[in-house]
Write a structure and sequence with these properties.
This protein is an alpha/beta fold. The protein has 15 helices and 14 strands. The protein has one domain: TIM Barrel, CATH 3.20.20.80. The model has no long low-confidence stretch (mean pLDDT 95). The structure holds 6-O-phosphono-beta-D-galactopyranose. It comes from Microbacterium testaceum (Aureobacterium testaceum).
């Protein structure tokens, strides 16, 4: 029993939360560059993926400040990646998930030729990873569509964006395909409904008609783009694999009252819609009906149905942080989760940000997904954001993080023992980086501490936390030694 030989262990990053160098090397503005750190806003407000207006975007772009726009500076991974990769190799990583910033290759998204400085950066990054025995797992779109596309036509709402994404993807496969054989199309593709601007470049005040319709239109365009680049990858690199990526928001009924169970079933249907399309190859009839009842029509074009059916992904990946419950009671107490607001589960503890900690939920999620699709799975995000304290002698004792991972790994291994085919695990994030939802770095996820505060003050020095050495041991034993 236990994890198979060749199981991939590592960590996950996103360009917009780690690279920094937002206006260097020919990179164009991305939607993440206008994400503002708001000290006065309670980061547990689940809608911190705030929407933007043309005015707030213009104000942000007129301001070259980087203190209150933390994603512009990240943790300077753009300049420090060799040092960070060496630390990941020291932990024994066999895989590292990163993303390619579209606007580093195509600054406005519409250029005919890529920016060669952007190409050079990623070529060196992937080559260095390979040199260290770390396999790249690369996300093509991770919360950073070019801002120019958002301002032009709400990016993914416009069907023309599919062709631009195909051009960007073809460049990535042509220039990096000899170094990268594991790909993901869209990070948490289901999230576009919850944060249209972050995922889809949709500026809601400029949307004609229903915002929800615009989101499902944009989501359909991303489904088509994902299937199209899956076909492209298989034509160019037959041995390489394309995965989809889901926010696994596993939800339990808050009570055994049949209404709570039915409400939970309806919620999970819309959650699984994305994997049903990307892994199953078609929109399920019940999901289409549920959307139709809400007045939402999917803008199918001739050829879409066949493309989706003929080019499903090779594996299913997902982020897992917490679980939620669903209740039909309007007065049910709610708590935030990863970009969502769910009903509190009285049996589970919560992090300081309100995310409910549920290791068993990871086993439930793995079994649910494998049962439903029978395709290999990959956990590409899992971790605990906490405030870490530096001791007098520069140490960081994070037993709470070790406990979180230990309990989640135990359940992950139980799912594998029950027969789930799990290819690998990348923690979110192996090094402290900028939070997607709150733009804080003080919500620390890493096994490696970064000396930087929420406004960017600090030396940027990297320090190994206690969990660094624990994870190193777990990897060396392929999960057998979790003590
Ligand atoms: C997921 C994103 C990641 C990461 C993670 C943690 O939604 O895919 O980019 O940010 O959430 O959330 P946060 O950074 O908001 O704490």
């Amino acid at each position: 029993m236990g994890l198979p030989d060749g199981f991939l262990w590592g960590g996950a990053l996103a360009a917009n939360q780690a690279e920094g160098a937002w206006n260097e090397g020919g990179r164009g503005p991305a939607v993440s560059d206008v994400a503002k750190y708001r000290p006065h806003v309670d980061p547990r407000e689940y809608a911190v993926h705030h929407q933007h207006t043309l005015e707030s975007i213009a104000a942000a772009m007129a301001d070259d400040d980087i203190a209150y726009y933390p994603k512009r500076r990240g943790i300077d991974f753009y300049h420090r990646y060799r040092e960070d990769l060496a630390l990941f190799a020291e932990m024994g990583f066999s895989v590292l998930r990163v993303s390619i910033a579209w606007s580093r290759l195509y600054p406005t998204g519409e250029e005919l030729e890529p920016n060669e400085e952007g190409i050079a950066f990623y070529l060196d990054l992937f080559s260095e990873m390979r040199r260290l025995g770390i396999r790249p797992l690369v996300t093509l779109s991770h919360y950073d569509p070019p801002l120019a596309l958002a301002l032009k036509n709400n990016a993914w709402v416009d069907r023309g964006t599919i062709a631009l994404f195909e051009r960007f993807s073809r460049t990535c496969f042509e220039r990096f395909g000899h170094l990268v054989d594991l790909w993901l199309s869209f990070n948490e593709i289901d999230g576009i409904i919850r944060h249209p601007f972050t995922s889809g470049g949709i500026i809601d005040e400029t949307v004609e008609g229903s915002l929800e319709q615009a989101c499902y239109t944009a989501l359909h365009h991303q489904f088509v783009a994902s299937a199209s680049v899956t076909r492209m990858l298989h034509e160019m690199w037959p041995e390489s694999e394309m995965g989809c990526m889901l926010t696994m928001l596993t939800t339990y009924p808050n009570t055994c009252h049949p209404d709570d169970v039915a409400a939970t079933q309806a919620k999970e249907r819309l959650l699984y819609l994305c994997t049903d399309v990307q892994a199953g190859g078609a929109y399920p009839r019940l999901a289409l009906k549920a959307l139709e009842v809400k007045g939402i029509a999917i803008p199918f074009v001739d050829g879409d149905v066949e493309l989706l059916r003929e080019h499903p992904v090779d594996y299913i990946s997902f982020s897992y942080y917490m679980t939620l419950t669903e209740s039909v009671r309007p007065d049910a107490e709610r708590t935030p989760g990863n970009t969502v607001l769910g009903v509190k589960n009285p049996f589970l503890p919560s992090s300081e940000w309100g995310w409910q900690i549920d290791p068993v939920g990871l086993r439930i999620s793995l079994i649910d997904l494998y049962d439903r699709y029978g395709k290999p799975l990959f956990i590409v995000e899992n971790g605990l954001g906490m405030r870490d304290e530096l001791t007098e002698d520069g140490r960081i004792h994070d037993p709470y993080r070790i406990d979180y991972f230990r309990s989640h790994f135990a359940e992950m291994i139980r799912a594998v023992d029950e027969g789930v085919e799990l290819r690998g695990y990348t923690s979110w994030a192996p090094i402290d980086i900028i939070s997607a939802s709150s733009s804080q770095i003080s919500k620390r996820y890493g096994f490696i501490h970064v000396d930087q505060d929420d406004l960017g003050n600090g030396t940027g020095e990297r320090r190994r936390k206690d969990s660094f050495f624990w994870y190193q041991k777990v990897i060396a034993s392929n999960g057998a030694d979790l003590a």
